[in-house]
Specification:
Chain lengths: 354, 261
């Protein structure tokens, strides 16, 4: 399935799928643009955002402010809500028409459906849920006697596997584009450049519904005014050890006192105590707050994978051997029911004293 | 109606991962289980069997040992099992895995193909949608509910902040989330029958409409440049305070030291 070096040479530029939902650009799109800018530098190329939807042209300016040199807009009424088919057709057509060397997609519930479908359609490799992206050589070290076979300026995609126990760096040396889905919350946005403009290219490959067009009967948005836990500076996170949904009240009180938000582990979501959008971990969200309280959380590796980049981790758990203590900066062995309410009072008192 | 469920045998990462002295995964020391999302997909298929008399076939790609999960599926109530195994299929990435499974699925009749959303070893969630693409059928990922009505299927499709109720005409492929259901246990009679049951085994020659260049390690566009254990930040300080007051003083002290409060 390998492409010839001549074909590969035709593929240029770093492209980003600029996910939007309800005509609002998702944060991951800006994060990808930040990373794309970094990757474009050693490649001496530019950054293109691919914006797909219906009535979305106005969003191009914000993509320019966050680092896009060009924005390809695919605007069609068929693309109003995300559906695998018209979206895959749109993105695959852009790839075939404009030939990017790198195509980044967010590892969201949309991107992890769109990415594989598109990669299969354009017949290239896709690396899932990457946490580090670099430009480098493949193989990493030249092979003795075959030094000239080492390829340069390759996208090196690093991702965790086996529930976060191992980490692998993957390349896609003989096919283009080099595609990756990238975990939200990991890459850094650039400081937006107010008033920046991108070259806007309108492109429509034509959409003819076929057997792959599903019909959306109903759209049900999660009714919650909860702020995204990925934006929180302080998270007060609870696990099964909190004991009951009612008992999360003591975590909410602590969060309110310290100016943070409540999040939770997978066990809590699986028990139906808290909604999925509050879940931290491998199958939830990756967070990196200034302070992460892990309260009654045992610290399964899948949970740790989603919070270990936090600046300060404070764990409270009655089980002295809980694995959370292996990653906590400060581990407190004790009864959360006794400690947390008192901690809330002390923090309130400290705030009042200022 | 005919339902095919793609399942995978995976090391149980929940019980901790074991490594060989050279740092590679010691798969032999880890319990091998049916991937949880796949098991939920199988349960969904078995409910269609209970409800509509659907015929349920399970298929897996792997080493001969992977037939263990096929027997487990038969013991839960699946009707037929297919093992796809061949030396030339080894080392496949998600592209080559999906071309292989698509090649096998072309030999089977199906109204519905169900895969798990993702396997707990690779966590890619790519093989399901890629199979659908190779077969030219619609894919609905992240299914939280599946309902069949005549030749149509309605799926509750999960997104990050919402869900869609989606309807499509079969054949189609659905990827199942483990929260879809609680899978049933094997029955003693089922286990007995499963031990006797014949498992169809297919090799490279049995795959339909697949080029050699799309199979195994050589047919995998992604190449591993480096693999290693995750280096984790070490443990910090651990305290075992005598009283809750002491615990609070420690935490408040640290928060003040770090200028959080």
């Amino acid at each position: 399935m390998n492409m010839s070096p001549e074909t590969i040479a035709q593929y240029k530029g770093v492209y980003v799928f600029a996910q939007q939902v309800d005509n609002k650009v998702s944060g991951i799109a800006y994060e990808l643009l930040g990373k794309a800018r970094e990757l474009a530098e050693p490649l001496k190329t530019d950054v293109t955002a691919v914006l797909i939807g219906s009535g979305i042209k106005d969003l191009a300016d914000s993509l320019a402010e966050y680092g896009a040199d060009k924005v390809i807009v695919v605007d069609d009424p068929e693309l109003k809500e995300y559906r695998t088919e018209p979206y895959a057709h749109a993105l695959a057509s852009v790839i075939n028409e404009y030939k990017p060397e790198i195509m980044l997609v967010g590892a969201t519930a949309i991107g992890r459906d769109l990415g594989p479908t598109v990669s299969a359609r354009v017949a290239t490799g896709l690396t899932a849920d990457c946490t580090v992206l670099d430009i480098g050589d493949f193989p990493l070290q030249p092979i003795l006697g075959k030094e000239d076979e080492q390829l340069h300026n390759q996208l090196l995609m690093t991702r965790p596997a086996f529930g976060g126990n191992t980490i692998a760096t993957i390349a896609c040396p003989y096919n283009r584009p080099q595609m990756a889905t990238v975990r939200p919350g990991v890459m850094q946005k650039i400081e937006p450049k107010k008033g920046a403009k991108a070259e806007v290219i309108e492109y429509n490959p034509g959409f003819t519904p076929d057997n792959k067009y599903v019909e959306i009967k109903e759209v049900v948005k999660a009714v919650s005014d909860v702020k995204d836990i990925m934006d929180a500076k302080i998270l007060v996170s609870g696990g099964r050890g909190v004991g009951s949904p009612e008992n999360f009240k003591i975590l909410e009180d602590l969060a309110a006192a310290i100016g943070g938000q409540v999040s939770c582990s997978r066990a809590v979501v699986d028990s139906g105590w808290k909604p999925k959008e509050m879940q931290v971990g491998q199958t939830g969200k990756t967070v990196r707050p200034n302070v992460y309280f892990a309260i009654g959380i045992s610290g399964a590796i899948q949970h740790v994978a989603g919070m270990e980049e936090s600046d300060i981790i404070i764990a409270i758990n009655k089980d002295e051997d809980a694995p959370i203590f292996d990653v906590a900066d400060y581990g407190i062995v004790g009864d959360l029911n006794k400690i947390v309410p008192k901690l809330t009072e002390e923090i309130k008192a400290a705030a009042a004293a200022k | 109606m005919k339902v095919v469920v793609c399942i995978k045998q995976v090391p149980d990462t929940k019980g901790g991962v074991k490594f060989n002295p050279d740092g590679t995964l010691d798969r032999g020391a880890m319990l091998a289980i049916m991937n949880p999302d796949d098991k939920a997909g199988l349960e969904a298929a078995l409910r269609l069997k209970d409800q509509y008399g659907a015929e349920v076939t399970v298929i897996t790609m792997g080493l001969p040992k992977a037939s263990d999960v096929l027997r487990e599926a038969l013991a839960m109530g699946a009707d037929k099992a297919v093992l796809v195994t061949d030396r030339v299929l080894g080392g496949a990435d998600t592209w080559a895995t999906s071309t292989t499974l698509a090649g096998a699925l072309r030999n089977l009749e199906y109204d519905l193909i169900i895969t798990g959303r993702q396997a707990i070893d690779g966590d890619t969630a790519q093989v399901g949608p890629q199979i659908a693409e190779h077969l030219g059928i619609p894919v609905i990922s992240y299914a939280q509910e599946i309902k069949v009505d005549g030749d149509k299927v309605t799926v509750k499709r999960q997104y990050d902040d919402r869900y869609h109720m989606v309807e499509v005409k079969m054949p189609c492929l659905i990827t199942a989330l483990s929260e879809l259901n609680d899978p049933r246990y094997m029955t003693p009679g089922g286990i007995f029958d499963a031990c006797q049951a014949e498992i169809t085994t297919w090799g490279r020659a049995d795959l339909k409409d697949v080029e050699d260049g799309n199979l195994g390690l050589n047919g995998s566009p992604t190449k591993i440049a480096k693999a290693s254990d995750k280096v984790r930040k070490g443990a910090g300080e651990k305290f075992v305070p005598d009283t809750p007051e002491d615990a609070v003083n420690i935490i408040v002290g640290k928060l003040k030291e770090k200028h959080v409060i």
